[in-house]
Amino acid sequence: MLTLSDDHREVQALAREFAAGEIAPRAAEWNATHHVPMDLLRRLGELGLLTPSVPEQYGGPGLDATSLCLVVEELARADAGTAVAVAVQNGLVAAPLLRAGTEAQKQEWLPHLATGQVFGCYALTEPDAGSDTAALRTRAVAADDGWRISGAKQWISNGGFAEVFVVFARTGGEGAKGVSAFITGPGPGLEVGPEIPKLGLHTSSTVGLSFDQLHVGPDAMLGAEGEGLKLALATLDGGRITVAAQACGIAQAALDLAVRYATDREAFGGPIARFQGVQFPVADVAAQLDAARLLTLHAAALRDAGKPHGAAGAKAKLFASSVAVKAADVAVQTLGGYGYSAEYDAERLYRDAKITELYEGTSQIQRIVIARDLFGDAAR
Ligand SMILES: Cc1cc2nc3c(=O)[nH]c(=O)nc-3n(C[C@H](O)[C@H](O)[C@H](O)COP(=O)(O)OP(=O)(O)OC[C@H]3O[C@@H](n4cnc5c(N)ncnc54)[C@H](O)[C@@H]3O)c2cc1C
Fold this sequence. Notes:
Blueprint: H1 6-33, H2 38-46, H3 65-78, H4 80-100, H5 103-115, E1 120-123, E2 139-142, E3 147-157, E4 164-170, E5 179-184, E6 190-195, E7 206-216, E8 221-222, H6 228-264, E9 266-267, E10 270-271, H7 276-304, H8 310-334, H9 346-353, H10 363-375
Helix pairs in contact: 1-3, 3-4, 3-6, 4-5, 4-6, 6-7, 6-8, 6-9, 7-8, 8-9, 8-10
The structure holds flavin-adenine dinucleotide.
């Protein structure tokens, strides 16, 4: 995929204009105060940018995965935390609903998610089960015409303001086949923990959830019993492409800043941009970012074509996240001492970039996904 269609360019321009006008000027302040911009997230819903992939029949704009990537990249270029809210709402909540939900579940949740009337979260990770998802211990026991869910979830993005919870819990024995997925609103027995202090992403809510016999009805199960982990991992196949897009946005912001600053900053009688020692790292980042974006859009195009995209998404996330970390480092170095100061965006980009190598599968896990695609059963 070498060129974008006119429709893609249109949605990219809309997101770029919104991000530049409404997010970028306030991002530093929001980050400094750890402010989650709820009004802005609702406005993204009004514009159809909160869940680009939700079909029109459920209240969304019905765009493709490529459009979602373009939106997430533009938002992340202005503020990585805002991009997370969209990536979760669309990629981790609406996507599994669209994939495995009954018609009644779709009708119940999607129109509210699409317009930003409610926000959702995806609760897979537990204190003792991160990369090893099949080790999760949250349990759902059949009871009272439905299920009672008990256990703990950790690191849940959007969790502090979510009213829709996609929860993965054990309904059977040990291992992957004992896990089922549920979708539920809040209720007695579900407690949302305090915000978890973290290195970056300060405009994104991240909390733990604890479940103590939360009752959900029989219609809360998402997909078939025992198929929950399959749904969780299929969801992450798509979600990783969006994380790659987020990484491209962070890298682009770092590149823009480095170029701007090096052009203006003078040392030894002229702009520092004339020194190859300043130019070359920035040039390397520009080349790597082009490659990261192509990998990302390639994975999205495969998804749009209905083709397998698990390994392509893992490659895109693995590479793009490393480019984001590198680009942010180059930006800090290019700005010298000012790169270390909160007065400039370089230090925020430096802190935000790292998360793209961690969530929705660490870089090691992406390598495992790619290796299994290459080696098949021999890699297991
Ligand atoms: C800010 C933030 C937001 C998040 N949002 C969500 C969310 O919304 N929903 C959700 O469910 N989760 C979320 N997560 C969780 C995230 O996906 C996990 O943290 C991540 O998958 C890693 O799991 P872990 O932290 O338990 O690390 P571990 O699995 O304990 O890994 C620790 C280290 O060991 C390595 N490792 C583990 N297994 C292997 C292996 N087989 N081979 C090689 N190396 C290995 C890892 O790569 C890592 O370096 C979020 C995390 C953060 C930090």
